[in-house]
Amino acid sequence: MIEAVGLTKRYGDKTAVDDLSFQVRPGMVTGFLGPNGSGKSTTMRMILGLDTPTAGHVTVNGSPYRSLPNAPRHVGALLDAKAVHGGRDAYRHLLSIAQLSGIPAHRVDDVLELVGLSEVAGRRTKGFSLGMGQRLGIAAALLGDPQVLLFDEPVNGLDPEGILWVRNLMKSLAAEGRTVFVSSHLMSEMALTADHLVVIARGRLLADMSVREFIAANSAGFARVRVPDTGPQQREALTAALTRAGAQVLPEQDGALRVTGLPLPRISDVAHEAEVRLWELSPHHASLEEAYMRLTQGMVDYRSSADPQIGMRPAPVPGRSDGWDPDPGPGAPFQPVHAADGPTFSKDPR
Ligand SMILES: Nc1ncnc2c1ncn2[C@@H]1O[C@H](COP(=O)(O)OP(=O)(O)OP(=O)(O)O)[C@@H](O)[C@H]1O
Ligand SMILES: [Mg+2]
């Protein structure tokens, strides 16, 4: 278990981490998400005692990292895979870490085997590719067989086989009851790997909830409705009837209708009352990527001028039963949400 309370880090007048409180629980993979420069790596460094908080504190299994007896046996981390002595071979690199931490030497062979680097164990690490370096970093994190694991962007540079392997590794470590805290910018991968999410932007907590709750809270689910292709009258009649019933109806490219604001049974009833037959009535949920983009829009510091978030759908509005806002605009207020507390919403005071 990792617990941060009011964790804050300032560098001069820059507040990298701002009053962050959250828990990372054992037995599940917790994804740590946030735009570039939002404070993820800084938070991880404070968890590992590599940076001292300006205010607040963070504990691992109840103690600050620096107070843990033989910390590498309890906590393993991959922060920067390039932080290795390039002149050493992979085996000696890991052996030196093991010897410094009182970890038996046979663990070096075990983890090299686990990450698939046994064949290159005698090669100097300065000749390693990006992905080989990531694998070596993951091996170092696993060396002490720790209960708590932190990975900062572990799939960075890995090939598809490696990404799948990391996904399965994280899940199996969590299934063994370990605490797994992993940052990533790959939303599709996080959707498959993480059970729970901690989302930050500009150092502040935006959301702390399960992946499922996060998507539900930050995206409008919708229904796809298709009527027989026998002319526009049926579509128009259904669109009018649904709109009268309080739904929002948008045309899809393939001729179907995207309906929000009404549950599926009600859509079916409205169609029946309007004497319109349906060929499709299906529920749809937004992706994690879409939900994340909505939550963090307006909170991203570094964005290409050529990519003004084309195609973004509007964010749902708290308090509106249909969850639909036609255009929240780029400066829409962010909504910090704790699953345990029920939704709370506040305006960004910046
Ligand atoms: N040692 C430092 N000195 C000064 N500023 C720092 C230092 N470390 C981090 N920062 C600043 O703190 C902010 C948060 O940085 P951090 O590396 O934690 O972000 P991040 O969420 O990990 O970003 P990314 O997704 O790009 O890895 C940034 O504005 C960064 O410039
Ligand atoms: Mg980082």
From TrEMBL:
<dbReference type="GO" id="GO:0005524">
    <property type="term" value="F:ATP binding"/>
</dbReference>
<keyword id="KW-0547">Nucleotide-binding</keyword>
<feature type="domain" description="ABC transporter">
    <location>
        <begin position="2"/>
        <end position="227"/>
    </location>
</feature>
<dbReference type="InterPro" id="IPR027417">
    <property type="entry name" value="P-loop_NTPase"/>
</dbReference>
<dbReference type="InterPro" id="IPR003593">
    <property type="entry name" value="AAA+_ATPase"/>
</dbReference>
<dbReference type="InterPro" id="IPR003439">
    <property type="entry name" value="ABC_transporter-like_ATP-bd"/>
</dbReference>
<protein>
    <submittedName>
        <fullName>ABC transporter ATP-binding protein</fullName>
    </submittedName>
</protein>
<dbReference type="Pfam" id="PF00005">
    <property type="entry name" value="ABC_tran"/>
</dbReference>
<comment type="similarity">
    <text>Belongs to the ABC transporter superfamily.</text>
</comment>
<keyword id="KW-0067">ATP-binding</keyword>
<feature type="region of interest" description="Disordered">
    <location>
        <begin position="305"/>
        <end position="350"/>
    </location>
</feature>
<keyword id="KW-0813">Transport</keyword>
